[in-house]
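S1.2 Input.
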Amino acid sequence: MKKLLTISLFILLSSFIIAQQNPSFVCLQAGASFPVANFSGKELPDGGFALIGFSAALEGAWFFKPWIGVGASAGMNKQPVDVGYLGYEKLQDNPFLTDLRIRSDPHLSLSIYAGLFFQFPLVQKLSLTAKALGGLMYAQTPYQLYKAEYYLIGKNWYEITSSGDYEASFLIGAGLQYDCNDYIGFSIQSDFTYNNMDFGFNQSDGTVRTDVKTVSYINLRAGLVIKLGKSKSPTNGAS
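S1.3 Output.
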């Protein structure tokens, strides 16, 4: 037990020292999220009818070498629903519907990842960054309220409640980082993820229907980088 504690303390101390010598950081990012694949599809039953939305993330990493480190990322995405196209497709799919209006919440996804971060100097103060991460995603379908009008029946209101699912997920990305000084920088990052989620819905007969839906998007975000230690650079080592 004492040996394990000694080794753990040595690793923590080594990590702290290394973090002061290499480009370790914390970064707060925000920007746009672009749905791709079936997530942005406009056809039933597989399309998600997702539109361009909002994305935010908090990332941090410590580097055990000047070019590679380990870290974590926590993110949130919201994509509105194209209710106009969704209503049109449902009208085409049901010959008894004569009119349909839909109010919808956005798609929501929350994620947390851990993995490898990379940084490669390009010119003075400008670096190429990359990451390859794995973790967990929680995705939630939107709550939707339908105002439908049926042939020979008339108007009817009904709702589709939201459903959520947790799945293993991955995130890969690349970007550019500009260092203003030894403490602050700015970044532009793009990352991608693709996930198949299983959403369960309670039906009127008491059974549960499971829909497999794609949640996939490309994020483009700008961020404020807070550097945890001065990075050693051969181009400005005398400064």
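S1.4 Remarks. Confidence is low (pLDDT under 50) at residues 4-20, 231-239.
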